[in-house]
Amino acid sequence: MQTAKHSTLMIALLSFIGGYVDTFGFIALFGLFTAHITGNFVLMGAMLVHPMQGGLLKLLAFPSFLLGVAASRVIVLNYEARQKSPLKTLFLVQGLLLAGFMLAGLMAPLPLESDRELAAIFAGMLGAAAMAIQSAGGRTTLAGIVHTTVMTGNVTHMIIDITDIVYSKNAELKVRAKARLRQLAPAVSAFFLGALSAAGGYLKFGYWSVLLPILLLMILLLCPMHRLEHKSEPG
Question: Is 235 within the bounds of a domain?
C-alpha cells in the first residue's frame, strides 16, 4: 500500500509562512498570536494582573480561529468524499484571507494606538482565520508529525530524535529518528527565518510585507500536485 508524503519544500514554505504571519501579527496587533491560541490564552490571563492593550483583539480572534478550523475541516471532508486532495483549495482560501488581513491592516494607522480601531480588529480576525486554515489543514492532510504553525512539538521531537541518534543502541530506532529529523529541522529553521523576516518586513514595508506569505501560497497553489507530494512505501 502506498501513502502520500508531502515534500520537505512544501513543509518548509508553510512553516516560513507560519512564523512570518504569527510574528507579524504579534508586532502589529498588540501581541496577537494569529497562528495559535495558547499564547493568546496566556496573554489574556496576564492582563488580569497587568492590564495591557490588545484584549479585544485577542478575544475576537478566538471565534475567528475556531471558524477557520471548522471551514478547513469542511473543505477537507468534501474533497475526501471525492477522493481528491484539498491542498490547493486550502492554499487559495488561506491566501484570500491573508489578502484581507493585509488590506484591513493597510486601512489602520501604524503604529496602532488602540485595539478598538475597526480596521485592526478586522485584520486580527482575518489573520487568525487564515492561520486556522493552515493549522487545521496541517493536522488533517499533512502526513507525519511535522507542524507548520507551532514549533513546540517539533522542537521537542527534534531533541528526542537527536538524543536517540546519539545515545540509543537500537539501529532501527536511529533510522526512524534520522528520517524524522530530516523533516523537522527544515520546518523549525524555516519558521525561525519567517519570524525574523516578518520583523524586517514590518519595519521596512508595514502591512505591504504580508504580500510575501501570500506570494508563497500562490507558488504552492500553482505548483503541480506531484511536486507537493510523492508516493512511497510506508516504513
Answer: no
